[in-house]
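I'd like us to work through together how a protein chain folds, taking it slowly. To get us started, please write out a protein record for me. Go ahead whenever you are ready, and we will take it from there:
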Amino acid sequence: MGSLDENLSVWTERWDWSQQGEEWSRWWGGTEAMWQAALVPRIHAFVPTGTILEIAPGHGRWTQYLHTLCERLVIVDLAENCIDACKERFSGATNIEYHVNDGRSLAMVPNGSVDFAFSFDSLVHADLDVLDAYITQLARKLAPDGVAFIHHSNAGAYRSASEVARRVPDPWAGRLMRRGVLIDLKAWRSPAVTADDVLRICDSAGVSCVSQERISWESGYYLTDAISVLTPKGSRWDRPCARFTTRSFHAEARRTARLYARSSFPGSPAS
């Protein structure tokens, strides 16, 4: 997965949205557990704020929290069915704007208007051209002290490991991926994107990447994902890039699901 056509086909025609995307949070013990344990500690300095832009919200898995943290929330998705679902789900919210785009354009967002841009567990499926388009536009859309929090693929850093994994026959491949022995190809990370690529795009776009965290995902050791925090040059957040790795991300998820999901987040399904 990676191309716009593939993404559009999956999210509009082939994916079963009956759980509103909540199934992707099960390994954390539920969406509220994942939000509080994985995301709030990473974004708390930037919210609440004035205007938030969410790119690729799906059925509103994170929108349900973001709209309470801002005066105005703008959500943009290439899948019209996802935007329609969000309109229905958040019909009582008066501070949300809804837009269907082409998977690349932020033309509907005024320049200099975004205090915080957010995309998590969506652009990991996007190829480099999509990330390039969004980051280049965010350089204009962010307010002078605005910040963007972008979750993207780093699977391109493991091309050799991916080739090995593709040669292993099922059902062995699935078992070995779940154990972290093989890189997880079933998580649909773009095979072409690396964290280094995103740094180069930021430099070309004229924004500062002030933090880049490479993380493991649900199955194992490989740092298939990355989170990049971007800000305009000269903003109050601008500083040299801090790069680090978190191989324990999947272990943190299991610990949260095991110890806290039932007691601290009532209603969250146990992992």
